[in-house]
Here is the input.
Amino acid sequence: MESSCLHIGMKAPDFTAITTHGPLKLSDYSGKWIILFSHPGDFTPVCTTEFVAFAQAEGEFVAKNAQLIGLSIDSNPSHLAWVNAIYQVTGVMIPFPVIADRMGEIANLYGMIAPNVSNTETVRNVYFIDPHQIIRAILVYPLTNGRSIPEILRLLTALQTTDQQKAVTPANWQPGQPTMVPAPQTYNQLVSREQNPQALNLKCRDWFWCYNAQLPEAQKQATLPAQSATPVERAVNNIPTAPNAAGNLNWPMP
Here is the structure.
């Protein structure tokens, strides 16, 4: 079966599947963010560490209105045996559904198989699907290297922040840090930024390079570490507020 090639901005192809939580239809999750990710195979070391890490962070995804969905071309009995083995060994329950794509139909529909690497295993794809079922971001990791769950959370938060603020996020952005505004589209906008950025609630290094000067109240609260914060949340809260010219996050805003 020929593999599809999906792109950011496309409608996520709908499908129905058998999972460890019973039958699933992707469109049933409309209104939620979906993190759809594939793994090469059950009972493998790297995939096991990823599933434990996803499970431990699942509460943070739920708090962001996001549903985790795993997938491989293993059978449902294999998935059930594997997630049970993970629980028996680690005490960590896998709280999200895992799709049994035995014939590879969904894997091929989403382009999860890289023929030059393997014709029988999915590589480590991650699809960020928004509440309107639009694919917003795609990450692809090789068979040999596990994914960074904090990075997946960071990108999900960045996408949501972009939607909420109609803003963009700079390199190395972390939740709670200032966002940026797109470059001006007219000369009058350019002049306004050069002459009086404060009136626009901006802090600019140049007319095309401006940060939002004030964080929204909800985002300010996100920067305050709470006693109940998870290790991931505590880690991202201890980062300076703006990058310097070298890309390091240790230079104050202009």
About this structure: The chain has two domains: 16-147, 166-237. The domain at 16-147 is CATH 3.40.30.10 (Glutaredoxin). The helical segments are 45-56, 58-63, 76-90, 105-109, 149-165, 187-195, 217-222, 231-237.
